[in-house]
Design brief:
- The structure is a single chain.
- The chain is α/β, with parallel strands linked by helices.
- It has a single domain, classed as Uracil-DNA glycosylase-like domain (Uracil-DNA Glycosylase, subunit E).
- Helices cover 51% and strands 11% of the residues.
- The protein has a five-stranded mixed beta sheet with strand order 2-1-3-5-4.
């Protein structure tokens, strides 16, 4: 099964999932969307009202702002994968509960494995907590760290700017720096790949001596 087929299978599973109570109020599940071969994944928190109606991530006001932020960073929505840590809308847009996060994590992990992105950009503290548990987003937003074979960049959720206008300048600044961070991540991953290739060649070279 290739990456596209795996993502399609997960989408079908999510549509009928009953692993947590969120399915009771679900109109449409929101599995996430984007190309299977992208190098960049954006992971938010949970679907809102409009996402629940349309079955697509980030289609409300926060989604429009995200589109603006992507454009500022030189990215287009069709080029990246966008999803959430929970696939169904929490009632009244409340924060996802631990059991809801746990129920959806298997789907998200399978999506990450299928896409195998080089860079994951977390939007909000709940998606950030998956990779940086116990850390305050106010302390690390706009920063990049390496987690295993990938780089993770923590960002404020675009909705934060809609609820707290004072955060908007920080969000704009973080996304303005995103192209630089992406280039740094790509360069670091290229160096790592070259080092691996050189280590594979070394025994062969020694055997010829």
């Amino acid at each position: 099964m290739n990456s596209e087929e795996t993502l399609a299978q997960i989408t079908n599973e999510v549509a009928v999932c009953q692993k947590c109570a969120l399915y009771h109020s679900r109109k449409m599940s929101v599995p996430g969307e984007g190309p299977a071969n992208t190098e960049i994944m954006f992971i938010g928190e949970g679907p809102g009202f409009y996402e629940n109606e349309q079955g697509r991530p980030f289609v409300g006001a926060a989604g429009k702002f995200l589109d603006e932020l992507l454009a500022q960073a030189g990215l287009k929505r069709p080029e990246v994968w966008i999803g959430n840590v929970v696939k169904c809308r929490p009632p009244a847009n409340r924060d996802p509960l631990p059991e809801e996060l746990a129920a959806c994590d298997e789907y998200l992990e399978r999506q990450i494995a299928a896409i195998n992105p080089k860079i994951i950009i977390t939007l909000g503290r709940y998606s950030m907590g998956k990779y940086m548990p116990g850390v305050k987003i106010s302390a690390v937003h706009g920063q990049m760290c390496r987690v295993g074979e990938r780089f993770v960049i923590a960002m404020f959720h675009p909705a934060a700017a809609l609820h707290q206008a004072a955060l908007k300048p920080a969000i704009l600044k973080d996304f303005a720096q995103l192209p630089i961070l992406l280039d740094q991540a790509r360069a670091a991953l290229k160096r790592s790949a070259q080092a691996v290739d050189e280590s594979k060649e070394l025994p062969t070279q020694l055997s010829l001596l």
